[in-house]
């Protein structure tokens, strides 16, 4: 168990997130919301501005407790980054928004995302591509058309699982994913689209084998070995790792065209956050999946 570092100080700073048109393609139940990968890029930018000498590509203890709605009529989101500075140099960053009561006397902060930036990445066992590409069990192929029309109804900017590549089995999922084609979307952590697309694959797995439409609510660790750029094609492997507190747990790996690991998202927790309003269609559900 990693020792919890002593808190050295805490500060709240303005955090402005530009509302580019492509963000409006990320809609849940008709409402555009900020994707988790975009929230992490925004927090990484704040952490780097606070401590330019500290790397930000190793993350831990992330949580996404509530969606951050996007108003299409606004050019940017006026948010707050609360930075907890720890004595070992780590930065715990929280993405907050504030609401004001009608009287104007009470201000309430809502937390939308939080993550700890660990500085240098510790050594971790790397899942090699030759192992990741082996998918045991009977494969179930899902086309991007059905994936993004019936399972994950996002707009064009977030349709980055490539045609004919998503295969599900009880052992997990494999697919090719794109770094996207949106100019200027990449942040300090690289393109947000490969992580987002890998989560789509995990969501499809949950719909087939667990009978639930699950959204990311946190992860244990994320490592970016080399950021993915826009336009790159990567391979992703989704590994189911059990369930905890009504959440499905996954390990997600992303590999570059040369087969080298580019990202690892470990202990990703995904659960239904719609109180059952969203349900998987019958065609995708495996026999005896879910209830």
Describe the model.
By secondary structure, the protein is of the alpha+beta class. It has 2 domains: 7-117, Hotdog Thioesterase (Thiol Ester Dehydrase, Chain A, Roll), CATH 3.10.129; 129-284, Thiol Ester Dehydrase, Chain A (Roll), CATH 3.10.129. The chain has 4 helices and 14 strands. The chain has helices at 36-50, 129-132, 144-151, 193-209, and strands at residues 7-18, 27-28, 31-32, 58-63, 76-86, 91-100, 107-117, 140-142, 166-169, 172-178, 215-224, 233-244, 247-255, 261-271. Strands 1-5-6-7-4-11-14-13-12-10-9-8 form a 12-stranded antiparallel sheet. A two-stranded antiparallel ribbon has the order 2-3. Strand 12 (233-244) and strand 13 (247-255) form a beta hairpin. The longest helix has 17 residues, at 193-209. The radius of gyration is 19 Å and the shape is globular. The model has no long low-confidence stretch (mean pLDDT 92).
Oligomer: single chain
Number of helices: 4
Going by helix content, strand content and strand pairing, the class is alpha+beta
How far is the N terminus from the C terminus?
35 Å
Write down the Rg. 19 Å
CATH architecture of the largest domain: Roll
Give the structure's gist in a few sentences:
By secondary structure, the protein is α+β, with helices and mostly antiparallel strands.
List the helices and strands and how they pair.
Blueprint: E1 7-18, E2 27-28, E3 31-32, H1 36-50, E4 58-63, E5 76-86, E6 91-100, E7 107-117, H2 129-132, E8 140-142, H3 144-151, E9 166-169, E10 172-178, H4 193-209, E11 215-224, E12 233-244, E13 247-255, E14 261-271
Antiparallel strand pairs: 1-5, 2-3, 4-7, 4-11, 5-6, 6-7, 8-9, 9-10, 10-12, 11-14, 12-13, 13-14
């Amino acid at each position: 168990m990693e020792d919890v570092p002593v808190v050295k100080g805490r500060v709240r700073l303005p955090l402005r997130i530009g509302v580019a048109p492509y963000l409006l393609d990320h809609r849940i139940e008709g409402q555009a919301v900020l994707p988790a990968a975009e929230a992490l890029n925004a927090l990484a930018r704040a952490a780097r501005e606070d401590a330019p000498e500290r790397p930000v590509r190793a993350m831990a203890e992330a949580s996404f407790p509530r969606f951050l709605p996007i108003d299409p009529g606004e050019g940017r989101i006026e948010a707050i980054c609360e930075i907890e500075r720890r004595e070992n140099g780590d930065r715990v960053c929280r993405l907050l928004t504030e609401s004001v009561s009608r009287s104007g006397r009470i201000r309430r902060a809502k937390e939308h995302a939080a993550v700890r930036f660990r500085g240098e990445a510790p050594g971790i066992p790397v899942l090699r591509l030759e192992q990741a590409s082996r998918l045991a069990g009977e494969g179930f192929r899902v086309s991007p058309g059905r994936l993004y029309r019936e399972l994950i109804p996002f707009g064009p900017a977030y349709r980055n699982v490539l045609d004919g590549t998503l295969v599900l089995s009880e052992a997990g999922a494999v697919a090719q994913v794109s770094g996207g084609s949106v100019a200027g979307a990449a942040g300090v952590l690289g393109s947000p689209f490969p992580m987002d697309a890998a989560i789509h694959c995990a969501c499809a797995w949950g719909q087939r084998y667990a009978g639930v439409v699950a959204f990311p609510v946190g992860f244990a660790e994320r490592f970016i070995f080399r950021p993915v750029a826009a336009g790159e094609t990567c391979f992703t492997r989704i590994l189911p790792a059990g369930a905890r507190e009504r959440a499905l747990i996954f390990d997600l790996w992303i590999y570059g065209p040369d087969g080298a690991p580019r990202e690892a998202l470990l202990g990703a927790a995904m659960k239904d956050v719609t109180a059952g309003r969203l349900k998987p269609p019958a065609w995708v559900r495996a026999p005896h999946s879910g209830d």
